[in-house]
Design goal:
single chain; 174 residues; alpha+beta; Beta Polymerase, domain 2; 5-stranded mixed β-sheet; two-stranded antiparallel ribbon; 8 helices; 7 strands; 44% helix
Length: 174
Amino acid sequence: MTKRQFLNAVSNGGGDVLQAFLDLLAESGTRYCVIGGLAVNAYVEPVVSLDLDVVVAASDTEAVIAGAEKRGFKLERFEHSINLNSRNSDLRIQVQTDSRYQDFPARAEPADVLGYTMNVAALEDVLQGKVWAASDPARRRSKRQKDLADIARLIEAYPELELRVPDPLRERLR
């Protein structure tokens, strides 16, 4: 079984929803990058995630959302994100609309993540996104714990990043 087949099996994929979304981004020439757990997987040993967190250039967001709707994705808007779901998969796509992330796509590089080629945020940007997420008191505790685990995975592989983690989070990692 390939990595792609594994991810599609885990997500109950009735089709390759992730590839369909990546194709939409490529066809529209959208500037984007993957952040979150799947981006962490580009830099360290992968862990399964059913979430694709992505930053789309603000100027391209509405076109991407319209294209996703035409492809059958259902959308739900929140204060800092637009969530896309397909009835063909349990994969959850979250388009991050928080303006703090808008510089990330410019520094992104293509990478292989579980058998898919996608633009992944720079290592330092992935860490910064995880720091913001782990520090957000509005997030569920279980999500913040996962963010801390991702930070730990990154700094274990790249010890030089530890100084970029704020002291309160570093204390929680010890």
